[in-house]
Amino acid sequence: MGDRRAMVGRDAELGAVLASIGVDPHRGADRLTDLLIAGDAGVGKSRLLAAVREEAERRGWSMVSGHCLDFGDADLAYLPFSEVVGQLVESWPTAMQQVLQAHPALAKLQPGRRTRSAGTGSDDDQAVDRPDLYRAMAAALAAVAKQNPLILVIDDCHWADRSTRELLTFLLSRGDPAGFAVIVSYRADDLHRRHPLRRHLAEWGRLGGVDRLQLGR
User: Fold this and answer.
1) How far apart are CA 126 and CA 86, in angstroms?
2) Does 125 score more than 70 pLDDT?
3) Which string of b and e fits 68-100 if b means at least 16 CB within 10 Å?
4) pLDDT (tens digit, 9 = 90+) per residue, 56-106?
5) pLDDT attached to residue 35
6) Which residue among 23, 136, 140, 170 has the highest number of C-beta atoms inside a 10 angstrom radius?
7) What is the per-residue pLDDT across 138-177, written as a single tens digit (0 to 9) for each?
8) What CA–CA distance (Å, rounded) separates 158 from 165?
């Protein structure tokens, strides 16, 4: 457990994350909780998430991660979810092939299909049926979670495009946890007064089954 030993002063936060989402102590697949993790740049969010992965996998869980990137005025719709779909297909090919057959919209998220566009809504986003895509993403996560509990991490969400934020709203609003927990991390110091993520955070924080963790220095 090298990562955990290296996390000076973060054992409490690691325990809080594991307890919040239902890893330790273990909760049933129908009682998992989602989590919003906030912290300033350089505070250790990435190291904490690495330790969460190590501890969760030691307990038989799996974890997939998607990362948001800063493209300035250009959008890359659903970028972190495209990354996640690539990991799911690579690690669970049989389950994902069945999901892709039942939900062909998911193919739109396979790596290599994303294109950048200027503005707040990319052509690539508008070209897909969003409800079908949302249901397909949830079905993929649920299918994998049937094999063992799953953690989905969307990192650096302060850089998330509108499409990613809206898909996260769908997943965080789901009534049935379906055997997977969602962790959203973001830089609190990047959220200026009119930052688009602020409205979503307020909405997500009011949902049942969503906890918050603020990392201090």
Assistant:
1) 21
2) no
3) beeeeeebbbbbbbbbbbbbbbeebeebbeebb
4) 999 999 999 999 998 765 678 899 999 999 999 999 999 999 999 999 999
5) 97
6) 140
7) 999 999 999 999 999 999 999 999 999 999 999 999 988 9
8) 10
Q: Which amino acid is at 195?
A: H
DSSP the chain: -HHHHH-TT-HHHHHHHHHHHTTTTT--TTS--EEEEEE-TTSSHHHHHHHHHHHHHHTT-EEEEEE----TTEEETTHHHHHHHHHHHHH-HHHHHHHHHH-GGGGGGSTT---EEESSS-HHHHTS-HHHHHHHHHHHHHHHHTTS-EEEEEE-GGG--HHHHHHHHHHHT-SS-TTEEEEEEEEGGG--TT-HHHHHHHHHHTSTTEEEEEE--
* Per-residue pLDDT at 121 exceeds 70: no
